[in-house]
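EI: anyone free to look at a 364-residue chain?
SC: sure, send it
EI:
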Amino acid sequence: MKNKLVSIMMVAALMVSMISGCSSGNTNNETAGTEQTSTENTTTTSTGGNDVKAASLLDKKVGICIYQFDDDFMALFRNELKSYMVAQGFSADNVSIVDSEGNQAVQTAQIQDFIKDGVDVLIVNPVNTSSASDITDLVVGANIPLVYINREPDNKEEQRWRDNNWKVCYVGCDARQSGTYQGEIISDLGMDTIDMNKNGKVDYIMIQGDPENIDAQYRTDFSIKALQDAGMDVNCLTSGVGNWDKQQAKNLVADALEAHPETEVVFCNNDAMALGALESIEDAGRTVGTDIYLVGVDALVEALEDVIDGKMTGTVFNDHFSQAHSAADAAINYIKGQSNENYIGCDYVKITSDNAQKILDAVK
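SC: here you go
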């Protein structure tokens, strides 16, 4: 049974918490001592009520593989993850974070190195979720607990963990919710507002992330489903794969707007791509909120500022605080010989001009 965590954004304490000043350089390995300790945990762990701070954690070693350091959201995630782990009692020297450089072969080699180094737990943000079964077999075979983050393996893989009672779990948000929230941000505007060319349809462009990532698939499908559930007819003018990258998205949207000046909405699977899309929208002489609408996901600082300024219609907060804290808590539970639910989830938060400033104050 999936254990639903209350989003940290729903807790008042988050509104005064701050992301610590952390290094996010693009080296292959983040060295110890570059992270500052974070605020006290405000999330609920899968076992609940545990005092996770323990002197016994000081000599425990943690290996963390991030699919790509260049990803803006994962930079926030990894920095908060390390800061929180240090705050819980780990030595910064024993929390090693490596950049898998978007290459599954590189990540697999890193996991093998961590196993040889005798880490006590592994936290993996997989490059390819299709490789999860191989990663699981490798780590479980070494008798090391494993926590997947951000990129969810498929149901078949998660069922293997349950069937074998393995110390393996996934921590993340359900991307279907983020897609639904994107669609609702648009549908809440009303058809009279959206349908500027009066053809009775929402004419949109879809810019997708990595097609390997289930988040991209869910955000794509459920954003449009939300419009249809609201009774709106939709028309996909074109779609393209931007691979979560700002420049790729900028190029795709520039071409799309030239081919389809009737575009009313641009959906982007993340904020980095939405920021690139915004540049092309402005280059085309269009104005968000006047003759086109734009939504993303992640609630990056720049995106939040654009929502406040009216340059983006909205975004969806991908709660890196609760995800990072819950991943660390799950790892600690395993180290202490305790168990976790195989799925540990949290909620996204819908962001419009109504609440963007509150979220910005919390994450800045």
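EI: The two ends are 35 Å apart (CA to CA).
SC: 👍
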